[in-house]
Amino acid sequence: MAILFAMPRLTPPTHPRHVRQLSTLGERLRAARLRRKLTQAMVAERVGVTLPTIRKLESGDPTSSLATVIRVLQVLGLAQDVDKLAAEDTLGRQLQDRELKRPRRRTATTCPPNSGDKPG
Question: What is the mean pLDDT of the segment spanning 41-58?
Answer without folding.
Answer: 98
